[in-house]
Amino acid sequence: MRIIAAYLLAVLGGNNNPDAKAVEAILASVGAKADAAELKKVMSELAGKDLDDLIAKGSEKLAAVPGGGAGAGAAAGGDAPAGGDAPAEAAPEPEAEEESEEEMGFSLFD
User: Would you say residue 60 has pLDDT above 80?
Assistant: First the structure.
């Protein structure tokens, strides 16, 4: 993922056809390294291709993938009251506790 992110950053920075050295330089600027085999594979897959076209095709493929959350709803329980005239009582929602930095064992901003 970091290789692709660095490639995209290079393109956003104006380099429409970044090479492996440009990607490595971006990664090195944030203290990250790229596996040579992975970098070679990504660069060969992207060579000569229009990035906007690849993103558009990828978006079409993602649109066809089910996103979850739209599965079968919960079945009605057998304990439901007959008639349904009485309004259902809403169960009180438990309040979420806020965690302090001491409870996490570290500070997010140190």
Answer: yes
